[in-house]
Amino acid sequence: MRSPRLERARAERRPLSIGLAGNAAEVLPEIAARDGVVVDVVTDQTSAHDPLNGYVPAGLTIEQADALRRADPDE
């Protein structure tokens, strides 16, 4: 599904920033696979997933990532 705000901005050639909360490792491949979607810039604010510890691996919840950090910090 396309965003009406995005389509309006594109038609008007007006810059638009869209924020999306999610794991970039999971979200970006889905966005890139869609026909007609053009992504100009992507920033991954990894620490936003978990402000105290940082990276949360794809497919894990914050709680699962925390348990993994305790059980196997090197992993």
On the 0-100 scale, what is the average pLDDT?
80
Return Rg in Å: 16 Å
Characterize the largest beta sheet: strand count, sense, and whether it forms a barrel.
none
Helix content: 25-40%
Q: Please provide the ordered H/E string of secondary-structure elements.
A: HHH
Bin the strand percentage. under 5%
- How many distinct beta strands? 0
Shape: elongated
Q: N-to-C terminal Cα separation, in Å?
A: 36 Å
Give me the secondary-structure category: mainly alpha
- Identify low-pLDDT runs: none
Counting H and I runs of at least 4 residues, what is the number of helices?
A: 3
Question: Mind sketching the topology for me?
Answer:
Elements: H1 4-11, H2 24-32, H3 62-71
Describe what you observe in this structure.
The protein has 75 residues and is mainly α. The chain is built from three helices and no strands. The chain has helices at residues 4-11, 24-32, 62-71. The longest helix has 10 residues, at 62-71. It is elongated, with a radius of gyration of 16 Å. The model has no long low-confidence stretch (mean pLDDT 80).
